[in-house]
Specification:
Helix 3 crosses helix 11. The longest helix is centred in the N-terminal third of the chain and has 19 residues. The protein is elongated. By secondary structure, the chain is of the alpha/beta class. The N and C termini lie far apart (55 Å).
Amino acid sequence: MVSLGLRRWRAAWCGFWEKKAPSCGDSSCKHPRGFVRRMRSRPLGVHLHGVWYCMPECLERAIADRLRPPQSGKARPVAAHRVPLGLILLSRRQVLPEQLRAALEVQRAVGTGKIGHWLQRMDYITEAQLTSALARQWSCPVLRNGPAVLAWQRTPEIPALLLESLRVIPVDFVETTRTLHLAFGEGIDYHVLYAIEQMLGCRTEPCLVGATLLEQSLLALVELRGRSEVVFERVADTAEFARVLRSYAHRLAASDIRMAPCGAYVWLRLERPPRSPVNLLLHRPPVPHTLFTVPLGMVVSPAV
């Protein structure tokens, strides 16, 4: 019994001092690793996804590792298990079989566009019918009305450019449960939901919204873009961008960094309490294993 209590006390004591003088998360770090030496020469350091890195060089290597694409084989296609939208509309008797066939023929001839888009464009269904059918397909509720853009003022900050590219808007944020409600326009992207959860430390709940309300909300959000957003359209390689991010983290005195791929961008969030965080967006090129760059003078500067 005494031995068990001693082990618990030792674990708690070590955990306390590990927080006071943590060890660097970089396995190739050349700086002192002993506890006493870390206490004597304790650098400021930065956290990256909860892991502490003692020096800018260590942080730069960690960022480059996270940006580097995996070397595994080709990604396996994800099987679709949802009822086709056309069958849902047929079962609801909102389209006729010949109308669905006509829309499918146009879709095949043009080679682009989703079937719901062509059914609406050919005046076979309304926007409300399309949104309702999509909600049935994705098993989620519909945001039918209301100024969703007002939620921007009370939700955790998400870059407006990112919302515009993902076609999603914040709807509401419940502080007590830290639940963020997001509305999508054409289907739920669960990879995006997971990325936002990791970046903001909250739960996400999806819903669907009509195209008109989505466009109105996104147009209103565009006016707020640039408050604390930095956009890199092209970067030479992962090492170059890691050096740039290391410089930003040092200049802004960031204490914590988070990063996650979101659609066409890699989203990076630099926390610097008590001031507001700074968001960086790195455009992901269509060709894998390659990143391109523009001069840093063309990058939007944040409001520090």
